[in-house]
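Incident log, support desk, overnight shift.

02:14 A customer reports that sequence design results differ from what the structure should imply. Their input is reproduced verbatim below. On-call engineer (initials T.W.) acknowledged and began investigating.
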């Protein structure tokens, strides 16, 4: 049942290329430069008229929402607000009929996320669900659904559902861009090309598995970890920290790299592993700028004797010259780098948890789907 893998989590990490292929299948056309969502109850005119999106979610799905904010704001030029479902539902959120409320939920059964969906419907909003379980409550109740075809996720720690959610959000961003005219067919074509290249690049990222297992020897006794990233990779830093804490019980925190000076720098000493998520898109001015800034953060961590593990684009010699360890991922656009960069973080958390003798698939105090509050 685990297909030769020791744990479901490891199997599901390795299923990611397949999960992404399935999530893209039938939804993108290179010839036409178009994406196709499954039919929804939301009229075309309303798709064009949205002025804002709100995305309530929990946990790892909330991290996907933060990635989605960057994607949708960049590609469709619509403002996006991300909220914890448990905050959204007990507030008095500002919503109107031109706000699209998108819930992201692997299980489709998370109590707070369902409550957020119902609240949005009650207030007259169009709702949309990105969900991995066909027939789940979220999939049945939302006006539009985009199913991630990641297949059943057994491990409590979410992996393949997360990367599939990001790809689904990318499709939603392209769809909104198409409807609103912010993206030409030629532009969509380029994005589709990059999406279709992802599964093979994920396979290449997974080839680091053995090297990361080795690296985990060096770090599995640490009591704290810091994860840093910028832009679309800031939520990846948060996700890397969550994966580590939930399965290895090591305290870990994620921060935007630029926030270090505002407090977290005080934590750095020679015992602290700092994972820096810093892919670069060569030739993209804004991406290069973010990279340069993160590179100077890396130097600051080093100056304070922190132990840097850097996730970098293959061929990057600058970061490699400074970090104690580097884990390469294949080159892609910065927007899609999030999908690749999370893979080594999943593997690092996994191998550290295994070395610590933790119950990887069933971490203490956690349930796969939080249907009660
Ligand atoms: C972490 C994890 C949880 C879930 C969260 C939301 O690995 O799995 O944080 O992401 O409980 O679950 P769904 O997506 O089913 O609503």
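02:41 Re-run completed on a clean worker. Output:
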């Amino acid at each position: 049942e685990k297909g030769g893998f020791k744990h479901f989590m490891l199997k599901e990490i390795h299923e990611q290329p397949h999960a992404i292929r399935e999530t893209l299948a039938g939804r993108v056309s290179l010839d036409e430069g178009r994406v196709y969502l499954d039919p929804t109850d939301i009229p075309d005119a309303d798709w064009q008229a949205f002025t804002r999106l709100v995305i309530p979610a929990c946990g790892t799905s909330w991290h996907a929402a933060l990635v989605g904010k960057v994607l949708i704001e960049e590609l469709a030029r619509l403002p996006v607000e991300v909220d914890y479902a448990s905050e959204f539902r007990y507030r008095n959120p500002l919503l109107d009929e031109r706000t699209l409320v998108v819930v992201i939920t692997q299980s489709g059964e998370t109590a707070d996320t369902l409550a957020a969906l119902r609240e949005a419907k009650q207030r007259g909003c169009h709702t949309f669900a990105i969900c991995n379980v066909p027939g789940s409550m979220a999939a049945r109740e939302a006006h539009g659904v985009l199913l991630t075809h990641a297949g059943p996720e057994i491990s409590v720690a979410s992996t393949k559902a997360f990367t599939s959610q990001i790809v689904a959000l990318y499709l939603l961003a392209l769809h909104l861009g198409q409807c609103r005219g912010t993206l030409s067919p030629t532009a969509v074509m380029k994005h589709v090309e990059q999406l279709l290249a992802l599964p093979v690049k994920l396979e290449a990222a997974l080839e680091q598995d053995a090297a990361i297992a080795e690296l985990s020897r060096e770090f599995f006794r640490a009591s704290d970890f810091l994860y840093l990233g910028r832009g679309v990779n800031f939520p990846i830093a948060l996700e890397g920290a969550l994966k580590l804490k939930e399965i290895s019980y090591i305290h870990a925190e994620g921060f935007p790299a630029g926030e270090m000076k505002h407090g977290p720098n005080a934590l750095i000493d020679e015992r602290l592993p700092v994972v820096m998520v810093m892919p670069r898109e060569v030739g993209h001015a804004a991406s290069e700028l973010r990279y340069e800034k993160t590179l100077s953060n890396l130097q600051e961590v080093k100056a304070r004797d922190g132990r840097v593990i850097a996730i970098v684009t293959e061929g990057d010699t600058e970061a490699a010259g400074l970090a104690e360890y580097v884990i390469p991922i294949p080159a892609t656009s910065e927007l899609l780098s999030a999908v690749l960069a999370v893979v080594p973080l999943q593997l690092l958390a996994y191998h550290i948890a295994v070395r610590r003798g933790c119950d990887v698939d069933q971490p203490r105090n956690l349930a796969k789907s939080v249907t009660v509050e």
